[in-house]
Design brief:
mainly alpha; two-stranded antiparallel sheet
């Protein structure tokens, strides 16, 4: 057993699980803002019910997602002490800001939004949800700032064997940041749109009583997925230029890449400085899925006169396509992270110098423990989401008036 391999496997496993929570959180909160804003402006009950229904699923995912984030970050000190010691003064700054944003501002706004139903004015209550969304996006921004620094270290100098931050603005203008951030946000919106469309399609297939509600949800989800696919593809392809300049070894042999490898060989000694083929494979499959999701544009004309529902086949297609954006976001993460290998910080700190000096058996124990914990949280999350999604919007607990008792069991479907 190899300590480095086990540490990398653990980080890949736990980060992938956590990233799924993040994608759902960012995607759903954006749609919730649209739904509740539409309710405040139009006063239509359908938007209130959709906000309550999807808000309840959002809260479930958020709470368990926060737990996975806390657990995951312990790895920086436990498994990657070399990384923390060498680049902590730079890498830790955006992570600290993200922690303040996510664990204080975002959680505070969300808690006030959850308990503010029917206690606050509609405008104030809506402003809290906007606060949740803005801080969620800010949290994603600072995470990407930190990650982009590992992809392309800038604004630092090494003193006494430790990297020190010298130019904070360089972190914000990092060439590895802008397009990657846009791509991640568009991917999250695709996940949220596809989730809303698939759950709505499932209820329409089952012919549950809330036909009008889930018809509206299906339309919103499909349109969101289609619109998000445009910037998703745009930001994705636009990254090839900056990545080719900052990481010339990522996409295979090139004169710049070969020159850089020669420099690394003289500085760090002989070694394999070519990223694993897994990075290119993940990139290829992610691109195929992204292009496949673009076919949702062909479903939009079927929204006319509800042909998308009458034909029923599009409903099944939408439902069965639900895993695709989740697979794509994991493949995208693999392409970005594995393509940086063998570096923890590209061209600055090799992974074998970043890993903690612990025994393989201890690292294996950590891998099993962390993976089981985050895997359990993920399973619990999806079971709860499926359970509450199956109940439909008949009587979500979120937003129920304090004096209103729970509704009677759901009535039988209006049509078989």
């Amino acid at each position: 057993m190899d300590t480095l391999f086990l540490a990398r496997l653990q980080f890949a496993t736990t980060t992938s699980i956590h990233f799924l929570f993040v994608a759902v959180t960012l995607g759903l909160v954006t749609l919730l803002v649209v739904l509740q804003t539409a309710w405040v402006l139009t006063n239509k009950p359908v938007y209130e019910r959709l906000t309550r229904f999807w808000g309840q699923l959002y809260v479930i995912n958020y709470v368990l997602g926060i737990a996975t984030g806390v657990v995951m970050e312990f790895q920086f000190g436990l498994n990657w002490s070399g990384l923390s010691r060498y680049v902590g003064n730079v890498f830790g700054a955006p992570l600290a800001i993200e922690t303040l944003v996510a664990f204080f501002l975002e959680s505070t706004f969300l808690g006030m939004w959850i308990f503010g139903w029917h206690r606050l004015r509609r405008g104030v209550h809506l402003a809290l949800l906007w606060g949740v969304a803005i801080t969620a996006y800010a949290s994603a921004f600072w995470i990407m700032v930190a990650n982009s620094w590992l992809q392309n270290p800038v604004g630092y100098e090494v003193r006494d064997g430790i990297a020190h931050l010298t130019d904070f603005s360089a972190l914000l203008t990092n060439p590895s940041l802008g397009m990657a951030l846009g791509h991640v946000l568009a991917a999250a919106l695709t996940v949220g749109g596809m989730l809303v469309a698939a759950v709505s399609a499932w209820h329409l297939i089952r012919r549950t009583p809330d036909y009008a509600l889930h018809r509206k949800g299906l339309r919103i989800g499909l349109i969101t997925t289609a619109l998000a696919n445009v910037p998703l593809q745009g930001f994705g392809y636009a990254q090839f230029g900056p990545v080719g300049q900052t990481q010339p070894t990522k996409f295979g042999g090139s004169p710049a890449g070969e020159a850089l490898i020669a420099e690394w060989t003289s500085r760090f000694g002989p070694g394999d400085y070519t990223p694993p083929v897994l990075s290119a494979a993940a990139l290829g499959f992610m691109t195929l899925i992204g292009m496949g999701l673009g076919l949702v544009w062909f479903l939009l004309p079927l929204l006319w006169r509800d042909w998308v529902i009458r034909l029923r086949f599009p409903l099944w297609l939408t439902l069965l396509s639900l895993p695709l954006p989740f697979v794509a976001v994991i493949l995208g993460w693999i392409a970005r992270e594995v393509g940086r290998q063998p570096w923890a910080a590209y061209g600055l700190l090799p992974v074998d110098q970043a890993v903690s000096p612990v025994s393989p058996w201890l690292m294996l124990t950590s891998l099993i423990g962390f993976s089981l914990l985050l895997g359990t949280l993920a399973v619990v999350n999806w079971v709860l989401l499926a359970k509450h999604a199956a109940r439909g919007a008949h009587d979500p607990a979120l937003g129920r008036r304090p004096e209103q008792p729970p509704a009677d069991p759901r009535p039988e479907p209006a049509f078989a």
